[in-house]
Amino acid sequence: MRITICRREHFNAAHRIYRKDWSDERNLAVFGKCSNPNYHGHNYDIIVKLTGEPDPEIGYVMDMKVLGDVIKERVTEVYDHRNLNLDIPEFADVMPTAENIVVKIYERLRPHLPAHLDLAITLYETERNFVEYAG
Amino acid sequence: MRITICRREHFNAAHRIYRKDWSDERNLAVFGKCSNPNYHGHNYDIIVKLTGEPDPEIGYVMDMKVLGDVIKERVTEVYDHRNLNLDIPEFADVMPTAENIVVKIYERLRPHLPAHLDLAITLYETERNFVEYAG
Amino acid sequence: MRITICRREHFNAAHRIYRKDWSDERNLAVFGKCSNPNYHGHNYDIIVKLTGEPDPEIGYVMDMKVLGDVIKERVTEVYDHRNLNLDIPEFADVMPTAENIVVKIYERLRPHLPAHLDLAITLYETERNFVEYAG
Amino acid sequence: MRITICRREHFNAAHRIYRKDWSDERNLAVFGKCSNPNYHGHNYDIIVKLTGEPDPEIGYVMDMKVLGDVIKERVTEVYDHRNLNLDIPEFADVMPTAENIVVKIYERLRPHLPAHLDLAITLYETERNFVEYAG
Amino acid sequence: MRITICRREHFNAAHRIYRKDWSDERNLAVFGKCSNPNYHGHNYDIIVKLTGEPDPEIGYVMDMKVLGDVIKERVTEVYDHRNLNLDIPEFADVMPTAENIVVKIYERLRPHLPAHLDLAITLYETERNFVEYAG
Amino acid sequence: MRITICRREHFNAAHRIYRKDWSDERNLAVFGKCSNPNYHGHNYDIIVKLTGEPDPEIGYVMDMKVLGDVIKERVTEVYDHRNLNLDIPEFADVMPTAENIVVKIYERLRPHLPAHLDLAITLYETERNFVEYAG
């Protein structure tokens, strides 16, 4: 009996999409207004999904309050009210596209969640643009 | 050609998460405020998903109005405005965690839905906490 | 220059709508399934609105983080995961209808918010049923 | 490393569910008010999901702005503010059930999206009724 | 003590915005794609708001279940799955703009709701376009 | 007959809340993480409300498509994907708090909307924090 539990958390951050090795013109041509030099920002929503068998004693796949605390400690309190490009080490040389952010969130969380549970993450950049990654 | 149809229904119920064979202290330590003795409650949302080939004559995998009626008759009208622990037989000896509720909903619905269609259920306890089960 | 700031918070609680001085039959006839004896529950959302002039030095009508803390301390941490009828003193002899809950929330908050700001509260019992009160 | 990107778009359209070779009575018996002769309508939401490896140079599976433009050009600007039965060729002899619409949207989009990316589509007819199709 | 109670209901309908005494060209120039000849449609949401003093005996301004039944009987079951222009008498000679629909809903409801309660209505045509009317 | 029409638009932007004439320590003490030096950001939603009599010939208070175009031209295309502090002149010496942003949006829109219509604006910084201003 495999069940998936899902927990939503959020953070607000600034970012900019551009390659440092490209000219401003080329960045603008490829990334459009996402490359504007002074950053823009988003209210990011994360949904963390864990799949496995419930613990027979407590009836939980994992306590969602504990899961929420892990997400907060490892991801949202780190990213919240920050500039992803300037303040977060993993984006020093990796562009903070939604695709790259969801992978980095996965890497931050995977070691701190039970190894026998499958992990998948959905990251909403806006209500219209979101990404999913399952390792 | 396999298509998934999805129908959302809802119910409002009270519940409490605790083990009868544990002390109040142990229940509080493990389940926190979810074990408060006088119950709390939620607006539960269910999404029922059925996957299969559409009927070529009517273009439906299943009539969603009929699907909604099955969900109401078998689940939401039974659970709505009830105390899951006290009023619903399947939770007399099973804690009504989201994980256990979604399994019981699956068991209630599976015999009353077409056998050739795959069934999966998502249960929202809140906007932030939800679970998925596919049998 | 008058501006309204709005802050959303939430709590989950059980309740039951019935008059102690009425028979079960009469309660059922008037209040329907809301009077079921073992309680049901909701995910309640509150929006607290304060109207006044922004402080010229900090540009805030009131710091929304502080406003959120007042709402949590005075209302949502008190009501959350509780049975409104049994656990909350102001509903010992007052039925916890949405109308009465929003008035009690107003009375809990008014003394702890700046007196020069107008207060209005919206309480969502479900997405479909909600109430507003402004003192 | 496979990631899914998701883009939401919408259109508003009229439709009617009925078989031309059936009597009005039979259509009403099978399709209910969805067969009313003068049409009704919906705000349709589409979520288009593409799965594959991000381009290492730009960090995108596909530019979501470009994906949005393809959806608009091939689907939503064609269907928007139209009568699906009368104005859209693919529904001249196919009933515009949600199941059939999502398949036709898939067929419209598949040739114009990168062949190495897997495509799945979710179509919301209402918040309560939606369908998913992945080819 | 004045409290506002709010009830949300919905209906799905087709409509077309055009003046019969204008040419198709002029209608297109003024109303754009809203004047397309074969109609389009929407998922309409209504919020009905009633303001007054709660009944001291039952703690309700008005029973929201009863309010919902009045809205269904007088408005949503009449308009649902209909073509507003062709099927609904009050739009035979009045264009079903959101502004006109909300006024007609008000006129349909006002005689069937308690006269001592103030009535206001919000009508959502889409999530982005909505109107409010209070008589 | 006065009706209110409401139009929702959005923009994504970076900002920082701090006084230039205060030390970093004082800014941090008063504004918390909102004063982080490298900015953060939000998905801002605006609802613009106009109240007045519908034009008897076209049945609109104002064409919502035209209203949307005015909001885009005067506000959202100017603010979108920008740093409010660095890129937008009116925030060069005014902190971009939600209160100040909603006032500046009002000032940007008022001259370009019909003078006989009352204007009110709601600005959502997040789903939990929003402000309203009516001039």
Topology (SSEs and partners):
The structure is a homohexamer of 135-residue chains.
Chain A: E1 3-15, H1 24-31, E2 40-52, H2 64-79, E3 82-83, H3 84-87, H4 98-109, E4 118-124, E5 129-133
Parallel strand pairs in A: 1-3
Antiparallel strand pairs in A: 1-2, 2-4, 4-5
Describe this structure in words.
The structure is a homohexamer of 135-residue chains. Helices cover 30% and strands 30% of the residues of chain A. In chain A, β4 (118-124) and β5 (129-133) form a beta hairpin. By secondary structure, chain A is an alpha+beta fold. Chain A has one domain: 6-pyruvoyl tetrahydropterin synthase/QueD (Tetrahydropterin Synthase, Chain A), CATH 3.30.479.10.
Strand order of the largest sheet of chain A: 3-1-2-4-5
Approximate strand percentage of chain A: 25-35%
| Chain pair sharing the greatest interface | A-F, 22 and 22 residues
**Major sheet details of chain A:** 5 strands, mixed
Name the CATH architecture of chain A.
2-Layer Sandwich
Shape of chain A: elongated
* Strand/helix succession of chain A: EHEHEHHEE
| CATH C-level class of chain A | Alpha Beta
Mean pLDDT of chain A: 97
- The overall number of domains of chain A is 1
How helix-rich are the residues of chain A, as a percent range? 25-40%
Number of strand elements of chain A: 5
Low-confidence stretches of chain A: none
Oligomer: homohexamer
Q: Please report the distance between the alpha carbons of the first and last residues of chain A.
A: 22 Å
What would you call the structural class of chain A? Answer: alpha+beta
Q: Might you state the CATH topology name of chain A?
A: Tetrahydropterin Synthase, Chain A
Helix tally of chain A? 4
Q: How much is the radius of gyration of chain A in Å? A: 17 Å
Kindly report the name of the CATH homologous superfamily of chain A.
6-pyruvoyl tetrahydropterin synthase/QueD
